Automatic annotation (TrEMBL):
Organism: Corchorus capsularis (Jute)
Record keywords, A-Z: Membrane, Repeat, Sugar transport, Transmembrane, Transmembrane helix, Transport
Main location class: membrane
Listed GO biological process terms: protein homooligomerization
PANTHER family reported for this sequence: BIDIRECTIONAL SUGAR TRANSPORTER SWEET16, RAG1-ACTIVATING PROTEIN 1
General function of this protein: Mediates both low-affinity uptake and efflux of sugar across the membrane.
An annotated GO cellular component: endomembrane system
Protein name: Bidirectional sugar transporter SWEET
Amino acid sequence: MAPALSFIVGIVGNVISIMFFASPIKTFRKVVKKKSTGEYEVVPYITTLLCTNIWMFYGFRKPGGLLIITVNAAGATLQFIYITLFLIYSPLHKKVKTVKLAIIFNIGSLGSAIAVILLLVHRNKQLAIIGIIGSGLAIIMYASPLLVMRMVIKTKSVEYMPFLLSFFMFMNAAIWTIYAVLVEDVFIMVPSVTGVVLGSAQMILYSIYRNKTKVENQVKISQKDHGAKNMIEVSSYKETLDEQEQKPANITCNRPGSPV
């Protein structure tokens, strides 16, 4: 019963994780539409790509790790697409930063880690080493939105902290915590519990500041509408004055000699 239950939970975990990985699609639609990344940060996508690659490696080395491989392969593909869009639509200094981070983390660090583990670590200890690295990276992945949370507190706006990303991060961490308990995998459990805590914190932050963001937007719209109204009133006033100035001239021309 336990293996069957863990497999079902793993399937559910795959679905939720893919939804989690796909949640920034709405954000990147805006990026493509505006042709600018604005204040969005590439760091979460760089760290998530590295994390998914390490966990794919973990899945290949772990017996029965098929579900770990599939979900992280899907995640890695989506992160690669997001980073590519970042490179296309970000300003030059952010493009340079993105390339540097991608090379350092997803080529240099990843390649070095895999090479060292396969060549220098005994086969019996490889899974544990990969699990420790994967757990550390997963914690970093879950913690990377802290940069955005700081911006939310500073600006009192949730514009750059999409709710769906926070929600699916929480759900993703919660379902994999259950899976980790069922299969007794401490390397999956530790970062997943961390994700539950940080995901909860993000949603609490969102609930605090989302109304303030709406109020600010309404104020801006009201100011624009008020300005437009003033422009209409001034234009109408000008037209009225022009009409008043033209009227006497027309009367004088049509009725010469009449008293004013």
